[in-house]
Design goal:
alpha/beta; 8 helices; 5 strands
């Protein structure tokens, strides 16, 4: 299901106090979750892979740590656990943009394809781009210090880099595997105040549901 785009306008009109230009000091996050799928959509000015990783991902991770967060999570969709019900939505999106041919045995080109929307619609190409990003960030942050932790949550169990971190119990349960970033993010809410970096509006209604559940749980206690 896709939420009607008009909901954000209605939300801003009726709940203006829910929006702010800066994070309130009292709400400094302990965990920042970065939606990596959104960051895959680059501008035309980014022409090299080095620029792509640095501008889209490294700078975002650094900005996340600058909030004072001790844990930064970079998440990507795990297609093995994306519900089958999402298939019609994906087909509808793909029908609007021609997809570049790119097979499982192909290597990433030395330069970024000129038609990025066509290229990134190819799931095999996208997966290899994600793997390249994950590999580069793991190398960049292998000596991370200051008690900070970078978590890369893509396939299988999340990769923890830096200070040791006890992942929430849901990661040990096969039935709790979550595929899409907008659902994955809330796995980390149990670790402390959570800030989500994304332009995907689906996070807002999901966060409202999470807050209401927490409020109800508080009442029961």
């Amino acid at each position: 299901m896709t939420i009607d785009s008009g909901w954000i306008r209605i939300l801003k009109q009726n709940c203006p106090n829910a929006f702010a230009d800066k994070i309130p000091v009292a709400s400094k996050p302990h965990v920042v979750f970065i939606d990596g799928q959104i960051k895959l959509m680059k501008s035309e000015k980014i022409r090299t892979w080095e620029q792509f990783v640095r501008i889209q991902f490294t700078s975002t991770v650094e900005r996340a740590f600058s909030t004072g967060a001790r844990v930064v999570v970079l998440g990507f969709d795990n297609y093995l656990h994306v519900p089958v019900s999402k298939a019609p939505t994906q087909r509808k999106r793909s029908s609007k943009i021609e997809t570049m041919e790119f097979g499982p045995d192909f290597e990433l080109p030395s330069i970024i394809p000129e038609s990025w929307p066509m290229a990134i619609r190819n799931r095999t190409f996208k997966s290899k781009v994600v793997r390249m990003v994950c590999t580069n960030l793991a190398k960049q942050y292998k000596d991370i210090d200051g008690g900070r932790t970078l978590v890369i949550d893509w396939m299988d169990k999340p990769c923890v880099i830096g200070a040791p971190l006890n992942l929430p119990p849901c990661f040990e349960c096969q039935e709790s595997k979550r595929g899409e970033c907008d659902i994955k993010a809330f796995n980390y809410a149990d670790l402390g105040p959570l800030l989500i970096i994304s332009t995907d509006g689906d996070y807002v209604p999901m966060a409202i549901v999470q807050m209401e559940r927490a409020r109800q749980a508080g009442k029961q206690q």
